[in-house]
Design a protein that fits this description.
Elements (H helix, E strand, L loop, with lengths): L8 E10 L9 E9 L3 E5 L6 H9 L6 E6 L2 E2 L5 H4 L2 E3 L11 H11 L4 H14 L15 H13 L5 E5 L7 H18 L2 E6 L2 H7 L2 E6 L2 E6 L1 H6 L4 H6 L4 E10 L2 E6 L2 E4 L13 E7 L4 E5 L7 E10 L3 E8 L4 E7 L11 E6 L5 E3 L4
Helix pairs in contact: 3-4, 3-5, 4-5
The structure holds adenosine-5'-diphosphate.
Length: about 375
């Protein structure tokens, strides 16, 4: 089927659904998504949430049970993988073990019958881009995991695919190397300018790499947004809890002297401006999110403390500390404090908590 071509779009998913044979629930259900040209988009979600199934439908390794996958105005749901001409990088490198680095990278070009001089020039330039000049004659087993993954990245990009798909490409590597390769992938994305679609279950990785993140849960998209939007304004409780630490505080929204406040059995948190100046709350149950950096530990006798509690745990994290305070009703509140170690309370201290109203965020009821 041919549809109007939107030249700013690299890819569109419309109602994409996959139910594997012999299962009673869909692995992916009604996914709608538009991905712009040149965007770096990451599918993020817990294991089993449908990320790989969605990526594999885009790659053409499995076909959707329903829905359309549109590239260049064309529904490609029935095209075999090689006709989609997409680059792929997998977790396990998938290099040809008996071939040299040079031959691995040249393979997609030879397969596509590029002239010899073009193959030579492209492979040379591609290896230079990922700092692998000098490694041309080695076999994959003579390279470190990080180098192998850079070869895989180069092989996936050397034929100029319009989209590069990456499925957990860094999960087999240790943390330091993963962070180095994240920077490298970001740089390569800037240099080649094509659309990157990346799958990970690691929220820090998703936030570090992406222009936009698609959060999956149970085969559905929970939210799509920039890392900052997802962190500051999560649409659901799931997103609030999956991305970073969060304090979700449930209580009644009341008005006190014209100012909205969240009231719980042991807390009263003033929230001026929370409702954009509108509304006049009178006791509705609500859930408000505060990130740990938006809560402050103050002395137990601080008159403006919203509530009091006892320090349960202090975790030293180098430049900052994570302090967990249990309030009088038994609720744990996580606070992140930067700098000044001498001001850090000790386990067992009675302290007060202040919440920064300007960053408070109402979690919608359905979340
Ligand atoms: P993720 O990539 O987010 O970990 P997957 O897309 O791999 O999730 O899996 C989504 C769901 O589909 C899971 O419940 C998984 O068990 C199921 N699933 C994946 N592959 C198959 C398969 N070949 N046959 C049956 N069920 C599958």
């Amino acid at each position: 089927m041919t549809v109007a071509v939107d030249t700013d779009l690299a890819l569109e998913l419309r109602g994409v659904t996959k139910q594997y044979p012999g299962t009673d629930t869909a692995a992916v259900s009604g996914v709608d998504l538009k991905i712009g040209r040149g965007e770096f988009v990451t599918f993020l979600g817990p294991s089993g949430s449908g990320k790989t199934t969605t990526l594999n439908m885009i790659a053409g390794f499995i076909s959707p049970t329903a829905g359309e996958i549109v590239m260049h105005g064309q529904d490609i749901a029935d095209l075999p993988p090689h006709e989609r001409n997409l680059g792929m990088v997998f977790q396990n490198y998938a290099l040809f073990p008996h071939m040299s680095v040079w031959d691995n990278v040249a393979f997609p070009l030879v397969e596509r019958k590029y002239p010899k001089d073009q193959v030579r020039e492209r492979v040379r330039a591609a290896l230079e881009m990922v700092n692998l000049t000098g490694f041309e004659k080695r076999r994959p087993r003579e390279l470190s995991g990080g180098q192998q993954q850079r070869v895989a990245l180069t092989r996936a990009l050397v034929f100029d695919p319009p989209i590069l798909l990456m499925d957990e490409p860094l999960s087999a590597l240790d943390k330091k190397l993963r962070q180095r390769l994240q920077l490298e992938i970001k740089r390569v994305h800037r240099e080649v300018g094509i659309t990157f679609l990346f799958v990970t279950h690691d929220q820090e990785e998703a936030m570090a790499l992406s222009d936009r993140v698609v959060v999956f849960d149970q085969g559905r998209i929970e939210q799509v947004g920039t890392p900052d939007e997802l962190y500051r304004r999560p649409a659901t409780r799931f997103v609030a809890e999956f991305l970073g630490d969060s304090n979700l505080i449930e209580g009644k929204l009341v008005t006190q002297e014209g100012v909205p406040a969240l009231e719980t059995p042991d807390c009263r948190i003033p929230l001026p401006g929370l409702l954009g100046g509108g509304g006049n709350p009178s006791g509705e149950e609500q859930c408000v999110m505060f990130r740990p950096e938006d809560v402050k530990v103050v002395p137990g006798d601080d008159e403006e403390a919203a509530c009091r509690g006892r320090v349960r745990e202090v975790v030293y994290l180098g430049s900052e500390q994570r302090v967990i305070v249990t309030t009088e009703s038994g609720r744990d509140v996580t606070v992140r404090t930067a700098g000044d170690l001498t001001a850090t309370p000790a386990v067992g201290d009675t302290v007060g908590l202040r919440f920064s109203a300007s960053n408070a965020w109402l979690i919608p009821k359905s979340g």
